[in-house]
Every structure is written in structure tokens, then in C-alpha cells.
Write the C-alpha cells for this entry.
Amino acid sequence: MTTLPRTLGADTARLESREKVTGTARYAADHARPDGLYAWAVPATIARGEITAVDTGTALADPAVVTVLTHENAPRLAEGDDPTLAVLQSRHVAHRGQIVALAVATSLEAARAAATAVRLDYSSEPHDVLLTTDHPGIYAPETANGGHPADRVRGDFEAAYADAPVQHDAVYETPPLHNHPMEPHAATAWWEGERKLCLHDSSQGSSTVQQMLAQLFALGPDQVLVTSEHVGGGFGSKGTPRPHVVLAAMAARVTGRPVTLAFARQQMPAVTGHRAPTIQHLRIGADRDGRIQALAHEITTQSSTVQEFVEQAAAPSRTMYVSPASRTTHRVARLDVPTPSWMRAPGECPGMYALEAAMDELALACGLDPIELRVRNEPDREPDSGRPYSSRHLVECLREGARRFGWQDRDPRPAARRDGRLLLGTGVAASTYPVMVAPCHAEAHARADGLIDVRVNATDIGTGARTVLAQIAADALRLPMDRVRIRVGCSELPEAPVAGGSSGTSSWGSAVHKACDGLRRALEEHSEVPATGLTVAADTTEESKGGKEYARHAYGAQFAEVQVDTATGETRVRRLLGVFAAGRILNPRTARSQFLGGMTMGLGMALTEHSTMDREFGDYAERDLAMYHVPVCADVPDIDVHWIEEEDPHLNPMGSKGIGEIGIVGTAAAVTNAVHHATGVRIRSLPVTPDALLPHLP
């Protein structure tokens, strides 16, 4: 076998780039068949109550309409682990927008018209949809997401805080936020006989969808085939199965024909999850040199009456800075709202916004530069666990970012820079995200024609995963990439975890590396490849247990420069810079894309994105991209991304950390800290909108 320069670290174009730019890459709803049907969902129009009557007569009068499924005639599902998937099983309505019927027709237009013609009567009950810290239903959950303890206490916080010469006490709020991936949640489903279910699904993990569907339809996993070859974004909202895939399978079973269902953009906020709002009480006590003596981070958030989901927003404060006395808690209220779910960097994103805004305020109170304050509170071991860090180069990120940004020229005084009617300011924030890895299986097969087939049920949600996995395979095989054929995104492939938690490349890549390294060694023992080929399978269950003796995190520093118009209150970002320490960067091109995407999303969190609960109707008002304002090209400056070289031997064979989420984590705080520096006005409730700023501006 020919030995070539290693491919990892090479700036490599995506393998599927031509298919995507030419429109030949097929997504879940692109697999509609000539004999297929189309479905359109009917959402509930009350926030709580019961369906008392269903009238589908007008809808079924159209000869193009094949059926209308409701709780009265839909197939019965077996009990599953996720109650949000028990669609059309009960007359009970738990929140506005819950799917209460499904129209199925021979065309998309007919299905949509039929859905509009379905008439449902309700018995409405009083609903409870607003989160407050004094809500009578507030309780302490057993755990927050990810298995984090709901509460953690170290030392005597109250005594240490009372003794601290410098005290900061403030409440920070983040609104409900919604994922809006370019491709909506969609599926095409069909049955082969009564016992074989096949689907194309827009999902971050087809193995998870396969297992869920097998459970709900009382099938064996081998009786369900789920393909997610191309996925147009997810950001966490496709990390767990959603109702669309169950509805499509139901409709296909009832009609005996393939059915395609895509949620309309306006339907997604109610049924595909959202980032729950948070009310975060931060108290930090420090000595006059800025060294933290006491830190309390107390979270109030919401979940639904259907299922508990607790955003782990206080967890980052347990590990980020020195804090001899610490109290971090989570409290939750179960409301008549859709169930919250995963959204890019859950926990770290809202939690680090509040912590990094508080650190900026503490720096001002101590008369310190914000970077110097963070450096003075750099721990040598993880405060929460006492474990040593596998690597921690946050200070280097801050220093390098300051050099590149020109931080040394900054006038620290708020509201000191003016350009006509514009106030100018700069801000900084730190970011972190944990290193996570899950067991994974993969296979590498050498063909007699000299090509290598690599099989792993990874999911490429637009990150370039298949490209990086091909690089890992070629590197382990010591072959050029054009000798490698990579296959991902189908449940018939070796089982792999979801694309989530910035753990995909580390988990899938470890299995691919192990399989390909084993195949290389096997091939070295053969003079030629057998006619039937040679296969090596890998299972990283044992390897994934390793490294737990270390605290493993990626780190970063984000810098922002903003201008605030004193006449309109409008904030515009002039510059964004991110510097990251995320292990070995396996593909600079796809990595830069991930960092850029995260920072852009953080800019949206700071200035434009929010969902507003309509108390009267129990519904989120912003239900499409005309009302829910994600950043567009005109909002995004020339973002600058850099990373430092970081060698960490305690991670995986590639030496990589996750990069998909850390870009968003510190960005919102960097922008809002810059707004304060520009104006002298501290807005502690996101997003920072003109109406919030304008009354305080000169």
C-alpha cells in the first residue's frame, strides 16, 4: 500500500458539494413516489382542553382526499419513551399547535386544502403559559439535561458572599428561542407488507428514529429502515424523533401507499422543540483584586405538562472560573406550552451569556480590564470535580484574540467613542463546551478493485461530516482520499450516535479510525485482496469510557465591535472575532464554516431572535422567518475566525474536540458587553432591541 502525506488537517472540499449546488442532493421530501400521497397536519387552536367533536365531511368530499386521520381513527401506538410522539392518540390537548388531525391526499395542494376544511370543536380550559420566578408550580427537578445534578453546592456561599468586598447581584433573562433549519422537518414513509417500515427522514440520527418507530409500531429494529442521507440543518431540533415521522408512518399504513409529510414553517415552533426561556440570578463576590470568592447561579426555566425538559444553564458556572464557594441551582415550572428541547449548545449558550455578562459587570466594579479579570480567575483544576484538565488554553485564546482585535487600544470608559450620532464600543466574552463521546460501530471493507468502502451510520446535517470521516479513513489507511468510498445516513449501516452535542466527529471518527487502522494492518498481512474482499468491524464502546479522569472541554474567546444609533436605538455589529482552542482541527474549511455559523447564530441571539408568548392565546407569535428574525447577510459583518494549535492526548485517535456549538456560546455576551461599552446602558434581557435601548440614549 502506498504511503502518502496525512490527509487530516487538509483544507478539503465537501464530497457532496457538487450535488448540493446543482440541486441533485435529495432530501427527505424529495423522495415522493409516482403513486405517493401527501399529508398536511392540522394544529390545535386551543392551549388546553379536549376535542369534543370532529367533522371531516367537507374535507373528504374532495375526491383527491384519501383520508383524514384523527384521534378517532388513527392507528394505536404502543407506549413509547417520548410522550410528545403519542400523536392522535387522545382527545386531550396539551398546548396550542399540537397536531390533532392529518389530511392525506393525492397532491400537496389538496392535502393542505383538506386540512383547512377539517372542523374540530373543543372544550377549552384555562391555560397557564407565562414563566415567572414566583410561579406557584416552581419545583426542583432531580436532574437537569445531560444528567447534571439540578443543584450543586461547594462551601458556604452566603457567608463568603457577605464577606466579599466587591459584590455583583443581577438578573439576566433569555427569551424562548426556536430552531429554523433551512429544511423543515419532513419524512417520506412507505410499508413493504405489514411488517416492514421504510422512511426517508430529516433527522440528526436515523438509528434513534429506527429504534423509536420500532417501539411505537411494535416492530423489531430490523423491520424499520430509516435513511437520512442529506439533512438541511438541525441545530438540535432534529436530534430526537419528531411527530412528523410518526404521522407519515401512520398515514402510509392506513392508505397502503407512500406518504410525504413536511411541516409548514408556521407549524414547526409548536412541535419541533425550542430553547426554553430562562431567568438567571447571578451573584458574584470578589476581593478588590477581582478574585472570585463566591458565585451563585440560580436558574428558573419552563417545561411542558407533556414531558420534563430542564435547560442545564447553571452547569457552565460550575466549571468555568475559580469559585471556592459556589451554589448553582435549577428550578422549573410545567406550563401549557410545547415541550422545550435541544437547541445549539443547550445549557452552555444561555448560561454562559449570563455568566459572561456578569463577569463584564464585575470587571467594571473592580476597575479591571475584562480580559485581566478572567485571567485572574483561571483555575488549575476543574472547580466542580477537582479533575485536572486534559487541556485548557482559554488564556491563550483571550491573549491571541486581544492581539488580533486590537484590544490594547481600547478606551475602557463606557460611552467614550462617538462617530456623529453613532456610539461605538467593544466587548469580549469567553466560551466553553464539554468534550463528549459516545460508543459507535463502523466497518471498513477492502474491495478487490483497490477501493475501500467505509460504512458508519453518521449523519451529515450540513457540517461536512462525510468529508471529514473520509479524511480520517484515508489517514488511518495511509491511502489517498479518492480510494475511499464513505457511506453514512442509513439505519442499515453500523449503529452510530446522533449528530449532536458536538460529539459526532469524535464518536464516529474514533470508530472509523479503528476499523480502517485494523483493515490496514490486515491488508499488510495479505499479498493481495481476496476476490470477496476483506472487512474489519470496529466497536468503540470500551474506548468511549476512557479519559473520564480528565475534565475535557473546548474553549474560545469572542470579541465584538458595535455601533449604536442614538436616534433610532439600532445596534449594528461592525466586527466579530473568535479565537478557539478545540484540539486538532481536522479540516480547516469545514471547521471555519462551523465557527462562523455558531457566531452568526450568537449574533442573532444578542440582537434579533426571540419568541413572544401571547398570553391570551397561549401561543408563540413569531411562527415564520418574517417574524422570527434570524440574521441575514446584511446583519453579519466580515467575521474573523482563528484557532490555536492544541495537542491533547486524552481525547481520541484524531486529537479532536467538538466545534459545532462553541461558536455560539460566548458571542451573545460579547455583543451585549460591547453595547454597554458603547452606550453605558446595560440591557440584561435578550435580545437588545431598539425599543429597549432608545429610552436610555442621549
